[in-house]
Specification:
two-stranded antiparallel sheet; about 20% strand
Length: about 80
């Protein structure tokens, strides 16, 4: 399963207001219905969700294309897709 590619859910980030101390489980497969967070759609694949723990109340731009070199946050990689 290591050669699987994630689904490009959208070619733009997801702006999410996060809360200090709260954990958010980012979907790495791109198949979730609750973008950008995991709903278990990765079952049977090699993908696993990644925890993002908010250090402060702020808006975080989670990657929608699953191509970011920044992990779960957008780095603009969608601009070259």
């Amino acid at each position: 399963m290591a050669d699987e590619e994630p689904v490009i859910a959208q070619k733009a980030p997801y702006a999410v207001a996060v809360e200090t101390g709260k954990s958010y489980w980012y979907c790495t497969c791109g198949k979730t219905e609750s973008q950008p967070f995991c709903d278990g759609a990765h079952k049977g694949t090699g993908f696993r969700p990644v925890e993002y723990k908010a250090e402060q109340d702020e808006v975080v731009y989670f990657c929608g294309c699953r191509q970011s070199a920044n992990g779960v946050t957008c780095d603009g990689a969608h601009g070259s897709l």
